[in-house]
From TrEMBL:
It comes from the Bacteria. This is Uncharacterized protein.
Length: 201
């Protein structure tokens, strides 16, 4: 089973993916951004646009995730913003066409909520020099696109914690959460550690 966690930048995809992995104890997080960063590192700086626009990224994501799913005996969790309808159909449709059991979840929230989360994220990791200006600019586009039926299952998150989102997804996908919730202090440490590991500088 492949769980695609979609959502605007700042919607909570990465936190949801790693908390879900922690609660399942046997799961793998596969981040397609890493393939995009690899492509960017091979290109001159003036050719580094949105890596999602590159056919080799899209085909590479399908091929890589299909191979992971074929050989994995645990759920594969994919935290990735994917709001272009054609790219979504190419990638998610391509995976389904390869026989992958894709469960897609779009974390939805208002633009104001997304902006507030991005500002908190910057404050939390300011020492690393994080810059979320680009993510802020994408909020309207992403929030609007993800309202489409194509991007169901929708998971409203304005008034849900990450823990509640994880528990909803697990229940919807019929997955048993083995590991219990963390206490408030340990949970905040876990969130900070995940955030620092995945900050863009």
């Amino acid at each position: 089973m492949l769980l695609w966690i979609n959502g605007a930048f700042g919607a909570g995809k990465t936190q949801t993916a790693f908390e879900l992995q922690r609660r399942l104890t046997a799961a793998h997080v596969a981040d397609p951004e890493q393939l995009g960063y690899g492509i960017h590192r091979m290109l001159p700086a003036d050719q580094r646009g949105d890596f999602q626009d590159r056919p080799q990224w899209r085909s590479g994501v399908v091929e890589t995730l299909a191979q992971i799913d074929k050989h994995a005996d645990v759920p594969v969790i994919v935290p990735m913003t994917l709001v272009d309808a054609d790219y979504f159909d190419e990638i998610v449709g391509g995976l389904m066409g390869r026989g992958v059991d894709v469960r897609h979840y779009a974390l939805t929230a208002s633009v104001d909520t997304i902006h507030a989360r991005l500002r908190r994220r910057v404050r939390a990791v300011r020492v690393l020099g994080a810059d979320e200006a680009w993510a802020m600019q994408q909020a309207d586009r992403c929030v609007t696109a993800l309202r489409e039926k194509r991007f169901a299952t929708h998971v409203p998150t304005d008034n849900r914690t990450v823990v509640e989102v994880v528990e909803f997804i697990a229940s919807h996908a019929h997955l048993d959460l083995v590991t219990p919730r963390l206490n408030a202090f340990r949970y905040q440490l876990h969130r900070l550690a995940v955030g620092v590991r995945h900050v863009r500088i």
